[in-house]
Amino acid sequence: YATDRFSGMPEQKTIILFATCGMNPSESYHQVLERNLEPFLPENCDYRGFYLCQGAINEEGYQAIRRRFEQSSDAETLERFEEFRIGTQDRPNQSDLENGKEYVRSRLNL
Known about the structure:
Mean pLDDT: 85
Oligomer: single chain
Largest sheet: 2 strands, parallel
Shape: elongated
Distance between the termini: 34 Å
Order of helices and strands: HEHEHHH
Structural class: alpha+beta
Radius of gyration: 17 Å
């Protein structure tokens, strides 16, 4: 999957990657994703970093997580997850986009 997504990335260019994560993206998760992406970057590019922000939880992911909570009979955690999901439906939002712009500026020393 990743090889299809990243095949044909521009060589000899400055690259900054952007992504969203339906669940709250932690710094450790960010580091894992970045390590997994690095092998797909062209060797002769100027890689400047990877911006990761909160995203909406897609329906497929939501259903999979919901099934796990239902199977574990953990109603309290399921309820917290439902509240969290509702709060992510507008993500990425304007604040996320502004933070992304600032990230690019800082990586390009603008």
